[in-house]
């Protein structure tokens, strides 16, 4: 089964809202760009449940959803790149630069490399802006489909279309979870788990 646009949007929004991304956006001075992306994604996501329910009867709606998923995946790629660069910076800060050589030639090379924070911020700022523009352009087409905003009222549809269930939506399984963890933690008894 293919991944639903709602699920992809939810992953991107959760990542954008995480504490790690709040720190990353401050580090790279792009908090306003990422906030705008998060706001646009949230607005579009509110329409996705209705769109996914109606797409079986409307081929154009299916195409629209696929276009959205491509942009959502591109957004996820950009966010992953921010995480990688942030980790790289932390490693360099903790252990020093791994580059060899010195002198002005090395400084010029370093300035134009991807490790230059100014060049990286500029490049990524343009990528985030491009994603936002693409998302805005695709989102404008939503009016032709007469979609309804659904925030929380259709959790049943959400559960029927895929197997993803948020932890906060599961009630009364804490004891079972603990029993499974305890069973898995028993030494050398893992061969008996069916």
Care to describe what's here?
The protein is mainly α and 194 residues long. Helices cover 70% and strands 0% of the residues. It is flat, with a radius of gyration of 22 Å. About 11% of the residues have low confidence. This is Disease resistance N-terminal domain-containing protein.
What key phrases describe this protein's structure?
194 residues; mainly alpha; 8 helices; 70% helix
Task: Give start-end ranges of low-pLDDT stretches.
Answer: 104-114, 153-162
**Overall morphology:** flat
Major beta sheet summary: none
**N-to-C terminal Cα separation, in Å?**
27 Å
Name the helix and strand elements from N-terminus to C-terminus, one letter apiece.
Answer: HHHHHHHH
Look at the helices and sheets and give the structural class: mainly alpha
β-strand percent reads under 5%
**Continuous helix count:** 8
Kindly report the average pLDDT value: 76
- What is the gyration radius calculated from CA atoms? 22 Å
- How many DSSP-defined strands? 0
Helix content: 55-70%
What is the topological layout?
Layout: H1 5-17, H2 19-27, H3 31-54, H4 59-95, H5 104-112, H6 117-140, H7 155-161, H8 174-185
Helix pairs in contact: 1-3, 1-4, 3-4, 3-6, 4-6
Protein name: Disease resistance N-terminal domain-containing protein
Domain Disease resistance N-terminal: 10-102
Pfam families: Rx_N
